[in-house]
Amino acid sequence: MQPTPTHTLAAPPALAPLLARGALGSPRKSRGLRGADFPPPPPGRFARLVLPGVRIDLARLAAYERVCGFPTGEDAVPLTYPHVLGFPLAMRIMSGRDFPLPLLGLVHTSIEITRRRRLPATGEYEITVYVEELAPHRRGTEATVVTEVRDGSEGEGEGGFGGGAGVAWESRSTYLARHGRGEGRRRAAADGIARTAVGGSGTASGDRSGPAQADGGGLEEADGSGTAQAGRSGTASGDRSGAASADRSGWASEGLQAVPGVAEWSLGGDVGRRYGAVSGDRNPIHLHPLGARLFGFPRAIAHGMWTVARCLAEYGTPPAALVRAEFRAPVPLPGTVTYAADAGTWGGFELRSGGVPGPDGEQVRPRVHVSGHVYPLVG
Q1: I want to staple 158 with a disulfide (CB 3.0 to 4.6 A). Which of 47, 144, 283, 319 is the partner?
Q2: Residues 6+ apart with CB under 8 A from 103
Q3: Which pLDDT tens digit goes with each residue over 306-338?
Q4: How far apart are CA 361 and CA 188, in angstroms?
């Protein structure tokens, strides 16, 4: 297998041209996926993009903190902010001609963030983004995109948790492209073997052929609830050995309400526009009802990463932490949602709203929009 090429950038890519390029190329890519077997990676695989010498715009950071509910003026950046720094690089890869999945309609289904040590807002960083793998999914194809932030430190992380090669922060985001598939692809997904590693050093495990969760794609199950993604919960492995297993019993996603909501949030219709302005993610489904209707949504929907950031701003995170979150159903704007959390039981949080009848016809089960876990990392 050919080595993954590395391209070093002199400046962050401009997002507007990338989004336009991705939109224009999406119809061609969608046609190529109709009834196709698992799309192979291009020759030489995808490039790793590296952006050195990154310094944080403090005014933009403060605006992000205000939109997401984080306290402003603290020395360390919020746990979710490096995702914003890496977003232009990810868009350059996913809008490229060689990336086989269409950018339009691509659904952010989950994210896993590992922070080994806090990142000072005044620091200088190197950001690396690459596609780790393509994987079959029962509703199409899923890509795993990795973002790494290096701070130049080779030592131990906070709490004794080591970080290799200066990686202070990293994330793995999964993005799903929905499409039909050929007979060979169906067999491969059933067997759980058609996975194609396309870059990076990580090794993924488990098959994502189960039901999807979605921040914006409406991939909830017919009863209005999501189904937890296999292979993303339980005890972390490898360098994530500090994470503990989680017992989800009694939570709304399991059809129960034993854990009460902590707060009720009223979300304005401008949440998507405000987050888009500070993050650069100006997907039309988040900005205005007219843009959302083009993709089948009656109203604009909140960014999945905003929902996670807002929950973590309320929940809090230790200096060294592993966070896993799954996007289950879109959050319509404007709207009212309930934030639920229990750090003592299983270290998790949920954002939910409304309710649908439970299996017994009497119990009311809220619709879960996002669910996540927070684990402290220990040596």
Answers
A1: 319
A2: 19, 22, 23, 25, 26, 91, 94, 95
A3: 999 999 999 999 999 999 999 999 999 999 999
A4: 37
pLDDT at 296: 84
Distance CA 106, CA 94 (A): 10
The tokens for 303 are 């960014």
pLDDT of residue 236: 36
pLDDT tens-digit readout, 202-218: 433 334 433 333 343 33
Give per-residue pLDDT as tens, 330-368: 999 999 999 999 877 667 899 999 865 656 666 567 899
Structure-token match 């402290």, residue found: 376
Residue 257, both tokens: 């309400």
Mean per-residue pLDDT of the chain:
79
Residue 374's Cβ-count burial label (10 Å; 0-12, 13-18, 19+) is buried
Phi, psi at 184, each rounded to 5°: -65, -35
By DSSP bridging, strand 48-55 and strand 6-8 are: parallel
